Amino acid sequence: MEDLTSAPHDVRGAPCVADELGDDALLQQFADGDAAAARVLTDRLAPRSLSVALRFLGNRAEAEDVTQEAMMRLWQMAPDWAPGQAKVSTWLYRVTLNLCVDLRRKKTPDRLADVPEPEDEEASATDRLQDAARKDALQMALSQLPDRQRQAVVLRHIEELPNPEIAGIMGISVEAVESLTARGKRSLTAILAGRRDELGYDDD
Amino acid sequence: MNWGMTMTDDKDNLDLLFAQARQDRQDLPDDLAVRILTDAEAVRLARLNPKPAKAAPPWRRILTGLGGWQGMSGLAAASVAGVWIGFSAPGFLPDPATILYPQETSFVVADLSLDTSFLEDAE
Hints:
heterodimer; A: mainly alpha; Rna Polymerase Sigma Factor, Chain: A; Arc Repressor Mutant, subunit A; B: 2 domains; 7 helices; 74% helix
């Protein structure tokens, strides 16, 4: 039996026929018992899930857990997938974002300290925000957006998805996506402008 | 301060940050890929080789062997009938004791089971 997990270098196999198939077909092949299909789907889809989760959560360990769980749900739903009804990537983005929101809701107060939150006490938050902002100004600003704005902005400007696909992922109209991304960008601009003086970027 | 110029700078800055974020997208870490593929393999194998249903507890297996609940009710009825026949055999049935132990043996059985006078003597 083929062992998929023996060593990392085995995980990324040589290019094969499966690379040219669509996600739908690969998912069907996996459901039919083809292990190679899982490898191609993982290479193709998991990085996108990780990227979105990382930008949404701002925490690598949590983002990796979310991606693993989202992919697990993909493997489990493979036999029930109806080809053509939606893109597999759209489904995975949606599951990923839902898992992120669930995780954020379940977070205990202790773990909230891991990420900068605007509602924290001003004094300590400033130190933490400065530190976080210097590491990643965008991440700091994103973390202050409401969930829906953050999702729309990440999908539009970092994942570079078209608005109709974002609408499908978020279950809203294209107009609502445009509104969310516009408001999100305005908020980010304002946050970054407000932080610029505090962080002393002008002095650099 | 030229506010209009600053706003433009901030927007440019945001676009630069987005571009940087897009470039910063990393490959899937190997250990995460292994975790994901381990899950996929487990799901795949479970689908190919569905596990047999969990072994039933012993009492249920015995029950099944005896024909399930219906078999059990029949068995209970037969047991009751057997006990009843043992106590009060109908006249048309032969006495099994006389078949197995004709004559004198049957007396021994009768003596052992019915004669309790020796107990009274002991007291």
